[in-house]
Amino acid sequence: MLMRGLLLLFVIGSSFATFANEHEEGEEEKFNAAEYAVHHALDAHEFHFTDDIVIPLPVILWTDKGIVTFMSSAFQHDDKGEFVVEKDGMKFVKFHEKIYLLEDGADALVLNEEHHVENASEVLLDFSLTKNVVTMFLVMFLMLLVFLKSAKFYKRETQIAPRGIAGWTEPIILFIKELASDNIEGDKYKKFLPYLLTVFFFILFGNLLGLLPILSNPNMTGSISITLMLAMFTFVIQMMSTKKTYWLHIFDPLGDSMSWGAKIPLYIILLPIEVLGIFIKPAALMIRLFANITAGHIIVVSLIAIIFVNQSAWWSGLSVPMTLFISGLELLVAFLQAYIFTMLSALFIGSAVESAHE
């Protein structure tokens, strides 16, 4: 926690110095806290710490003329403050962290009254290694390191009490195992335990890395595309594991409790709800994780923005302690959201594999 506080103060100091220098040079542009907070929560094509410390990442685009690659540092500001790159006879513009291909003959981006792009189109496919993608590879590396080190310990040691990384992972693995067995009947949970463990540690590590200012606070688990894919994995596993009982609960929720004459009017209401529930459940998984993690990032940045909105370092006496407090809560949220996603996934899968009961 102390290390996070020191890193946070370093980032604040660097950012404030940059803002102060710009102000002294005569720039009168007012700091837009809302725009900056939302921009911080979005994915990016580089790791941006200060105006002087930026780590570029590879940009890989698929266009009508084939694959185009260059480093994100190739983007330069033109007179209008737009990002323009000329490559292989094409002009690319980065606007709100999206890369557009300018139309032939166009030299600058044109926006309409609604602030939408008029003279450019998004590239066919963007395979760029963005900040979230790099963070995802880092999470994968950490998971391999943790699990391989833990497995190596149990192969080598004979004592009961775990040590090192195994001492940290064993309680969590046993906890997830208990969670899975409580929501998935019998021994069926063993089939799905590897997935539940993977999704728990993936979300947990992603959440924890998002709390590190030294990594420019990547918002991997706050990306709607990441949470969508996680929810889709749970949904596909659930659908592929369904039993007859699951579909009977969907299309005949009342069972034999009453005659068909009495059930038909109720089914007009119940059936659409039950069918929609199949798709609402993964959607809830996606939105819950995305909203909670993104909200935490925006709150932290908004508190720091108080200093720049008021253009006084004295406000750090209020914003920094509040930010550290929220950061402490975010540490709890990192574990809580990983647990909730895993628990609900186990619950949904458990309902799909449940056997018929009299």
Quick gist of this model?
The chain is 59% helix and 11% strand.
The number of domains: 2
Our estimate of the beta-strand percent is: 5-15%
Euclidean distance between termini CA atoms = 53 Å
Mean pLDDT: 81
Backbone structural class: alpha+beta
- State the low-pLDDT regions, or none: 6-27
Query: Rg from C-alpha positions?
Result: 25 Å
Tell the overall outline: globular
Helical stretch tally = 9
Q: What is the number of strand segments?
A: 10
Task: For the largest sheet, list the strands in their spatial order.
Answer: 5-6-7-8-9
Largest sheet: 5 strands, antiparallel
Secondary structure: elements and pairs:
Blueprint (H helix, E strand, L loop, with lengths): L1 H23 L8 H9 L4 E3 L5 E3 L1 E6 L2 E6 L4 E2 L5 E5 L2 E6 L2 E5 L17 E3 L2 E2 L4 H26 L8 H19 L5 H21 L14 H17 L3 H8 L8 H51 L5 H38 L5
Antiparallel strand pairs: 1-2, 3-4, 3-10, 5-6, 6-7, 7-8, 8-9
Helix pairs in contact: 2-8, 3-4, 3-5, 4-5, 4-9, 5-9, 6-8, 6-9, 8-9
